[in-house]
Amino acid sequence: MRLPADIVARLRTRYEGRRVCVTGGAGFIGGHLVDALLSVGASISVIDDLSNSTLDHLGELIELEPERVRFVHGSILDDEALAEAIGEPVAAAEAGGGGGAGGAAEVVFHLGALGSVPRSVKEPQRTWSVNATGTVRVLEAARRAGTRRVVFAASSSAYGGANLGEPAPINGFGLIQERGLTEDLPPTPLSPYAASKVAGEAALLAWARSYELSTVSLRFFNIFGPRQSADSAYAAVVAAFAKRLLAGEAPVIYGDGKQSRDFTHVSNAVLACLLAGSVERDLRGEVINVGTGQRTTVLQLAERMAEACGAPPDLKPVFQPEREGDVRHSLADLTRARELLGYAPVTTLEAGLAETVAWYRSVFAGA
Fold it and tell me: Cα separation of 290 and 106, whole Å?
């Protein structure tokens, strides 16, 4: 994943030499964010318990940039681990504390979470503990350290049963609607995962209103891309489709396949994080959509991915019952993202799928 050179150059002026922390930085989105933060000159502290990730990629970065990438193996439910990762206030570090931390992280990107709607239905209490209580612990660690801003990875699942309406096809692939889901709609979470993410948004708003802490929640819409795990029973749909199609197996669709999603390449999510962490305006708990403004049905996604994977024409999807907690339609309205962050997608669905399928092909061929 690479961001356009002009954007990297502009963001470098905002991040070079600054300390940041990424919770969940060994994970899929977190790992790509760490890559981007390195490219714009930041020094990064990562905290991750490795329950849903490995140190493979992050370990390579630490070997290449040992002075700029630091790893804390711990949970966001562990206050001591969080304090070590986020750091101490500059005054405390100058007084001899902090073990060379050089003060607190100026920005905390909070991506650590238990993802997956189906898993949350099976493990609701664990999901809530990590995603809701864990977010409060991150906010408290950031507040104590004197961090300037916390950027939270929220979720489009917050919209739940919002009535978006059936999409109309355009050009046979992309599905677009003039008006997507706007952030002022009341949340209607349909799963424990969605509820835990909405709780995180509420915490960020409350901490911004109660303390001198700038916060912002980015509602990610169906993020996909290279390095997303395809090995879990709860794998995201693009990863799951790629694994089966490249193995010559039929993709599995839960429901009728006519449900639509705003599939968003990980580069767009990373860009939104970088913008949210560096924008000069005073963010106070705002919720901001991060997507492409284009939606595609799961059936269309399966067709396009089958073509990209070189699957035979007679390899048709297998349908399974709809899963509990899944929403019917999802599409981001990007008005607020443009106005507050200057955000616009940098990678289209077509280009993102081509890159992603090529990555999975190389990985599975090696395996």
Answer: 23
